[in-house]
Amino acid sequence: MTQDSPDGTAQASPPGVRLGLPAAGPGSVSTIGRRLLALAMDWAIAVVLVATLQLTDPEVPSTGALNRLIVWFVLVALITGLTGASIGQHLCRMRVTRVDGRPLGLWRATLRTLLIALVIPAVVQDDDRRGLHDIVVASVVLNR
Predict the structure, then answer these.
(1) What is the pLDDT of residues 65-120, one digit of tens each?
(2) How far apart are CA 10 and CA 6, in angstroms?
(3) 69: helix, strand or coil
(4) Domain ranges (residues) in the chain
(5) Of these four, 8, 14, 20, 33, which has the most CB atoms within 10 Å of its CB?
(6) Total-model pTM
(7) What single-letter DSSP state applies at residue 8?
(8) How far apart are CA 50 and CA 121, in angstroms?
């Protein structure tokens, strides 16, 4: 979103400002880099869990990838729904809330995680750094 400055030129407002959020600091919209780091941490945790629990069948090579995806999905959906952030998001000092500030809840977190797993909804973003997965469930990822 752009705003006109006093000299008549257009200026982009910081992400989240049009949602009533601060431009920087706690409560502001998290950066893409931090979000990707949290996603990588969550995926690494799922990989380690699957390897530790030996949930792969050596006879069927594709089961490892599927099991990692299932473990990642369950971990992220449950922990985000119950605590407001995945493990990676907690470590990166972020939280996921509804745009109105209320907790996300389990069903919204599950739908959000499903859309992230589809990849494309997470890649398409608006000016407030909200992917389609956030727009669909009316959520936003904020700095703590």
Answers:
(1) 888 999 999 999 999 999 999 999 999 999 999 999 999 999 999 999 999 999 98
(2) 9
(3) helix
(4) 28-143
(5) 14
(6) 0.85
(7) S
(8) 26
